[in-house]
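Sequence only, no structure available. Ideas?
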Amino acid sequence: MENSNLPLRYWFLVIAYLSMNNNGISALQVQKELQHNRYEPVLRMVKKVKLLPDNDLLKQSIIRYIHNTYKS
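Reply:
I predicted one. Tokens follow.
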């Protein structure tokens, strides 16, 4: 997230997409979902998020918030 020109909202959304899809979503799909013009920054972001450990506190907090907000 540091030194990124992408909005923080994108980072949160990517963490959410990857957590809901068990890392089964491609960077191209994320790019289309975010409606972002360029593929390369989205690819770098997806790779960084996938490298985050499962015990990362920020990642856990975002996932918990999303699951509590969008419970069916």
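The chain has a mean pLDDT of 85.
Hope that gets you unstuck.
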